[in-house]
Design brief:
About 65% of the residues lie in helices and about 10% in strands. With about 180 residues, the chain is mainly alpha-helical. It has a single domain, classed as Winged helix-like DNA-binding domain superfamily/Winged helix DNA-binding domain (Arc Repressor Mutant, subunit A), CATH 1.10.10.10. The protein has a three-stranded antiparallel β-sheet. A two-stranded antiparallel sheet has the order 1-2.
C-alpha cells in the first residue's frame, strides 16, 4: 500500500493481481510475441525516467550535479552511512578516478567528510556532514511534491505494468508466501 500525501489518497495494489501480471510478463518474454513484456518495460522505464529527471532537476536547482547528488544519496543511504571512494564508484557504475573527483568536490563543498581508517591509513571513509544531510533533505522535500503530482497522473494499469517489470528485474515473486507478508 502506498500513501500519496498531497492527494490524501491511499493506493492499494493487489499482490495476487501483481503476481499474475509478473507471470504474464515472464510468459510473454519467453514467447514469440513479446508485446506484453515490452509494454511493462515501457511503463517501468517511463516511471523511472520521469522520477529520475525530477530528482536531477531539483539537484540542479541547488547547484548540485545530479551524479554528485547520487553520490551523496549512496553515502547517506548505505548501511553504516559511510562508504569508500571505490564503493561509491561501484554504486554509481563509474570509474574510481571519476568518483574520486566527485568526492573531492563534495568534500570541498562540505557535504562529505573524510576520515582515515584506523586499520589502514590508505583508506578513507566518507560520511555526510550536517550541511550535506540538510541539502539532501531539502532536495527530497522538493522532489516529493513533484513525485506526488506525477503519481496522481498514473493509472492503475500503468503502475501494475511498471511494478511487474521491476519485480521481474530484481527476481522477486509475490507468490502466496510473499503476498501474505505485504
Amino acid at each position: 500500500m502506498a500513501r500519496n500525501r498531497d492527494a490524501d489518497v491511499t493506493v492499494v495494489v493487489s499482490a495476487a493481481r501483481l503476481e499474475r501480471k509478473r507471470r504474464e510478463v515472464i510468459k510473454s518474454r519467453e514467447g514469440e510475441d513479446r508485446h506484453r513484456y515490452f509494454q511493462g518495460v515501457a511503463e517501468a522505464r517511463y516511471v523511472l525516467r520521469k522520477v529520475f529527471r525530477l530528482v536531477e532537476d531539483e539537484a540542479k536547482k541547488v547547484g548540485l550535479d545530479p551524479l554528485a547528488h547520487q553520490a551523496l544519496i549512496q553515502v547517506y543511504g548505505s548501511a553504516g552511512a559511510t562508504l569508500r571512494v571505490k564503493e561509491i564508484a561501484d554504486r554509481l557504475d563509474i570509474s574510481p578516478a571519476f568518483a574520486s573527483s566527485l568526492v573531492k568536490t563534495l568534500v570541498e563543498k562540505r557535504y562529505l567528510a573524510r576520515k582515515k581508517s584506523s586499520e589502514d591509513q590508505r583508506v578513507a571513509w566518507l560520511s555526510m556532514t550536517k550541511e550535506g544531510k540538510r541539502l539532501l533533505h531539502s532536495i527530497d522535500e522538493q522532489v516529493q511534491r513533484h513525485v506526488d503530482y506525477f503519481n496522481r497522473q498514473l493509472e492503475p494499469g500503468q503502475r501494475e505494468a511498471a511494478m511487474s517489470i521491476l519485480l521481474f528485474y530484481v527476481g522477486v515473486s509475490l507468490g502466496r508466501a510473499n503476498a501474505a507478508n505485504l
